[in-house]
Write a structure and sequence with these properties.
Number of strands: 10
Distance between the termini: 43 Å
Order of helices and strands: EEEEHHHEHHEEEEHHHE
Length: 262
């Protein structure tokens, strides 16, 4: 029986590289994972019903839900709350899996002294607490308006687990550093997109097709701001891919060949 794709969201966390270009924060999944075992992935996960609930959306007062949903192409009725929920899902998963908060503490940008508070809020979420309860208890608001929607991939038919995933770019907020959640990843590190692609070709570093497509695009970007301005304003279409080939609707026109990576 064909598996139904599960709605999910991923956050592609970027920082500027000294001298130009960007670095991307990647998690490596445990080798025993039932999906994408050993692969380098972007932080993300499955959309929870709570992500689209009014109490959760209230955590993001600056998000224009209608505009966010329209960019995703899911506006109207339940689509508006679902589109907003996908943004909240990306922010929540980023916070849970890396500790990086796109948001505010007591109405201001998080400062270095807020690290213990952020760690406590993260622990509460990882312990099963609802975001709508745990985050206000620590004075935290979310800022999914900082995300830039850039890609949409659907796992092809014939696989036991399928995902309908929306990808968002996020710049690393000042003063924060990611730390991978050990239960989700065996490591979390910053990588140059082109170098990670070259490793995939040369030593079989595991990268799934959507990851390769996005890394190839990011390798050409001069900065995180430029990536957001470029990718975040292009038309985005569903990109469906088979096991042995890729039909990349817009990111990029082709996958890089070994000689193109030098």
């Amino acid at each position: 029986m064909t598996a139904v794709p599960r709605l999910s969201a991923s956050a592609v966390l970027l920082r500027d590289r000294r001298g130009g270009g960007v670095e991307v924060y990647m998690l490596r999944r445990p080798s025993a994972s039932s999906f994408a075992a050993g692969a380098y992935v972007f932080p993300g996960g499955v959309l929870d019903d709570a992500d689209s609930a009014p109490a959760t959306l209230a955590l993001a007062p600056a998000l224009d839900a209608a505009a966010a949903a329209a960019r995703l192409g899911v506006e109207g009725g339940e689509g508006t709350s679902r589109g907003a929920g996908l943004h909240l899902c990306a922010v929540r998963e980023l916070f849970e899996e890396t500790g990086v908060l796109l948001g505010r503490v007591s109405g201001r940008v998080p400062a270095a002294g807020d690290a213990p508070l952020l760690a406590a809020a993260r622990d509460a979420l990882l312990g099963g607490a609802e975001a709508s309860q745990a985050l206000p208890a620590h004075g935290i608001e979310l800022a999914p308006e900082q995300l830039r929607y850039v890609a949409h991939f659907i796992t092809p038919d014939g696989l036991p687990r399928r995902f309908d995933t929306y990808f968002f770019l996020a710049a690393l907020p000042p003063g924060q550093q990611p730390a991978a959640h050990a239960a989700e990843a065996v490591e979390g590190e910053w990588h140059l997109p082109g170098v990670l692609l070259a490793r995939h070709l040369h030593d079989r570093t595991v990268l799934m097709t959507p990851t390769r497509i996005l890394l190839a695009e990011l390798a050409e970007q001069p900065s995180a701001a430029a990536a957001a301005a470029d990718l975040g304003t292009r038309p985005v279409a569903d990109i469906l891919f088979g096991r042995d080939d890729v039909v990349a609707g817009r990111i990029p026109s082709h996958l890089p060949l070994p000689e193109e990576l030098g």
